[in-house]
Amino acid sequence: MTNPATLREEILRLTREYSRQVHPGFRPAADPDRTPWQEGTTIPYAGRVFTEDEVEAAVSSTLDFWLTLGKEGDAFQQELAAFLGVRHSLLVNSGSSANLIAISALTSPKLSDSKRLKPGDEVITVAAGFPTTVAPIVQVGAVPVFIDANPITGNARWDQLEAAYCAGKTKAVMMAHALGNPFDLGATLAFCQKYSLWLVEDNCDALGCSYSMPRELAESLGFTKNSPGLDEGPDRVIRFTGTWGDLSTQSFYPPHHLTMGEGGAVNIVRDQTLKVIAESFRDWGRDCWCPSGVDNTCNKRFEWQLGELPEGYDHKYTYSHLGYNLKPLDPQAAIGRVQLKRLPQFIEARKQNWETLRRGLAAHEDVLEFALPTHATGWNPVAGFSWDATGCRTDCSWFGFKIAVKPDASFSRTELAQELDRHQIGNRMLFGGNLLRQPAFVQLRQDQPEALRVMGEMEGSDEIMNSALFLGTYPGLTTSMIQAEISVISQLARNTTTF
User: Fold this and answer.
1) Which of 295, 98, 327, 68 is nearest to 200 (CA)?
2) 0.85 exceeded by pTM
3) Which of 265, 300, 317 is a domain's end point?
């Protein structure tokens, strides 16, 4: 009989060889063993980027057959929290679930009455974006209050925050960093501090983005330390997005900055209480915090008396919340651990790909409008970005390269999308566009007009919906693929004239 350790070693050796032979097209763009892109074949807007290391990790974990979240999950949670510089990261099965858990945590009766989000309380959010940033607000019985988006940054118009506030009703702000472009954290944090509001950062598209501000401003908002590995000197504080609010969320779906196939995380930035609550909502709503397969961490498993249960009722079967089961699998976490090691290189590749596209399309500013990072006032190929007077800066780990077709161009956004599609170049709208125009929200307003509140006409969100799309920046894009994208767009722009 073959020794099991030897057999395992051989299985993993063959796994690596299989992956090298079958999956060379998924290696990072800079990998010399990557299959070259062939002209005329598909250029995805995003996708999995991996090598035999991830495949081996998945198979190795599967051979252990623990399956449910275990040692790999524990390690990944610790490693992600350490990378970001947050107190805890809690793995879940998707970014959408992460948003649901984050907002649900704010409804817990374990929070003070003044801070707890109750049915009918309000959460300020932005109209342009992905629906599962907003859906959980409705799903927990709260009221989303929509402010408009800036069509250049894609992010919320921070100047509408004050108008959206309702004393005694507003409890939180929950918004995404659009396409890897941080929203105005300086203004939003000051607003939340003024009214003692929760801030939930949807960081699903922005892992690795950073935001910095003058130290004096940061200290007035309660921040003194940089995120790990980020240093801008003694006069500034620089932190990753997802580390400024109270809670933040991540997605590990394949188009995102790292992938577990499916998966996500809730980051607990500072408050240990939120960790216990979020974990409860993720794990069926139970009050017990013992991991699967572990009993009696608190050493008084049969000594609790909660609710109207008899004293001594098993703490592992005591439920303080109406929770869910939203854990991923341990083999997914094993993949994520390998991906996390690649993250610094992935981040740099996204930045470089955005820069290459911007330089390559600079000649077409007469018909195309390009995104700017929050706080940037302009861009040129020599000096790069110019910045506003706030002293705040953004460094974007771009999820996508946003383009808008100007009103006086002789082609529309849809025609641009069709041309890209004809050349098999992946492109996407800015997710749901103006979410208030989506069928689900139109129906919600008809059925329950009081279920949401809208600040103004949402002109910026409509502009994004009508004129914008984005290309990929993911680290699987090779130079030849990006140049092909530039060529197709440039040809369309050159062959048309402005009215």
Assistant:
1) 98
2) yes
3) 317
